[in-house]
Every structure is written in C-alpha cells, then in structure tokens.
Design a protein that fits this description.
271 residues; alpha/beta; Spore Coat Polysaccharide Biosynthesis Protein SpsA, Chain A; 9-stranded mixed sheet; two-stranded antiparallel ribbon; 9 helices; 11 strands; 38% helix; 23% strand; globular
Length: 271
C-alpha cells in the first residue's frame, strides 16, 4: 500500500462528500494501491447516511469506522491509525481538500528529506484567505493573543516564500511516513480535542525529526472552527483542559526557551 488517508468526520454533511470524492480522485492519480479510512464520530446531521452511500461508490478504496458517540480527535483517529498499511499516511479533516498535484508534491518532498517527520502545505479558507495553520508551540500568552486577535494575526502574517521548519502544524492536513508512528507513538488519548496536534509534533521533534511547512503549495481547509477564536462552548472548554494537560506533560507554560533546550531544538527565530 502506498498512501493511507485517515479522515475524521463529525457532523460533516456539508463537506464529507466533496472531501472523499476529491480525495479518491487525487489518490487515483498517485502510485497505488491506496486506501482511505474514515472515522465517523457519532454525527447526527446525515453524515452517516452520506458515508454509507460513499462506501457503495468506492468499495475498493473506502473503509469507514462508525462510532455511536463522539470519541474526540485522538481516540477516533487512533482507531484508523492502528489499521493503516500505507507507506505514507495522510491525516485530514473532513473539511479539507487536497489536489493530486499537491499530494504528489508533498509525497516527493517527504521521500527526498529523511529529516522531515511531517510535511504540510499552506492552508487557506474556502474564500482564499490565508489560514494560520502553523505556529510556535503554544504558551499561555500566545494562546491569549490568538484568542482575542486570531483574525488580525492571520491578516498581518507574512507567508514565507520557501520551505521552513516550524514548531507544529494543525492536524487538518498532515503527511508522514507510517514508520514515524513506531518512533513517536499514536496520538495521546488523554487529550480529547486539541492540542493533540501540538503534542504529536512536539514528540516528532523529540524523536529527531522536524515539521516542514511548504507554502509554495496550498490546500483548502474550510475550518469548522469548533474552538478557534473567542468562543465559549464545550469544545473550547475541552481545548482548555487539553492545553493545561499539555503544559503539565511537557513542563512549560509561559515561555519556550527551556522547552527548546530540553528537546534539542534551535532557538534562533523562535518564540
């Protein structure tokens, strides 16, 4: 198996058909065989019926794991990550879409750079706006800044013109070697919903790899934004709980200097 895609679906009726249709199309133009695993996370909006139709449309490619309840982002994704057989693993949200050209580019980038643990493209909102999908590891001051001014941060961001190594990338669209899971492990299931992506990327760095951001290629992430920005809802509180767990697990909160030193990351140009 060449590429295994893992897609997480929760109340994704607006996006799931276009996500899977475009993903099947992209994978059909890649060396194969390839596979798609979808974890249906207890949706109540018609996503289950849509996925059953898609299973009939793509019986050789698509496999769906149905959960009767929302298991969060870690337990659910791990259900599929334990089953993947591909040489490379594509982790996607159901509201993301990637073209064959971008996927092929990332796959070659990963093959040609053994130092890169995860490779990611520039992400854009559906209307073409830049999306802040990579950042320094979150600290309490940085999270407060993002909470009150995410749109302003995105509007003022200067996008690099070449590949750069970043602290972390959101898990809306990752590509990595399946062998990375043997070095890093699965997602930390003590985190229900975010920042499991930060924790995983941090462990990638600890294992001697890096997270590579290629802004020369882009994909659409029509973010549902369940916890982005100043929103008080159940997902925001779960995110806060996960953030406090992250700080405790990795022994930092207000600054990054000691964290960088502890995991052997260069500090120049970092927060």
């Amino acid at each position: 198996m060449n590429i295994s895609a893992v897609v997480l679906s929760f109340n994704s009726i607006r996006h799931i058909r276009s996500c899977i249709d475009s993903l099947v199309s992209a994978l059909s133009l890649m060396p194969g065989p390839n596979e798609i695993w979808v974890v249906e996370n207890g949706s109540t909006d018609g996503s289950v019926a849509a996925l059953r139709d898609l299973e009939h449309s793509y019986p050789k490619t698509l496999r769906v794991i149905y959960s009767p309840k929302n298991l969060g982002t870690t337990v659910s994704r791990n259900l599929a990550l334990r089953r993947v057989t591909g040489r490379q693993v594509l982790v996607m949200d159901s509201d993301a879409m990637v073209s064959a050209g971008v996927l092929a580019h990332l796959s070659v980038l990963l093959d040609e750079n053994p130092r890169f643990g995860i490779v990611v493209p520039r992400l854009e909102y559906a209307d073409g706006r830049f999306q802040l999908s990579v950042d320094t590891f979150p600290t309490l001051p940085r999270k407060l800044q993002r909470l009150v001014g995410l749109r302003e941060i995105e509007a003022a961001a200067v996008v690099p013109s070449e590949i750069v190594e970043v602290d972390y990338a959101i898990s809306a669209l990752w590509l990595f070697r399946r062998s990375l899971l043997e070095r890093v492990g699965l997602l930390d299931e003590r985190i229900f919903y975010s920042p499991e992506d930060v924790d995983f990327c941090l462990r990638v760095w600890q294992a001697g790899f890096s997270v590579a951001y290629d802004p020369t290629v882009s994909a659409v992430h029509d973010a549902q934004e369940l916890s982005r920005g100043a929103k008080l809802n159940g997902f925001a509180f779960k995110h806060l709980k996960g953030l406090l767990y992250l700080f405790t697990k990795h022994h930092y909160c207000l600054g990054l200097k000691r964290l960088y030193k502890r995991i052997g990351m260069r500090q120049e140009g970092r927060g």
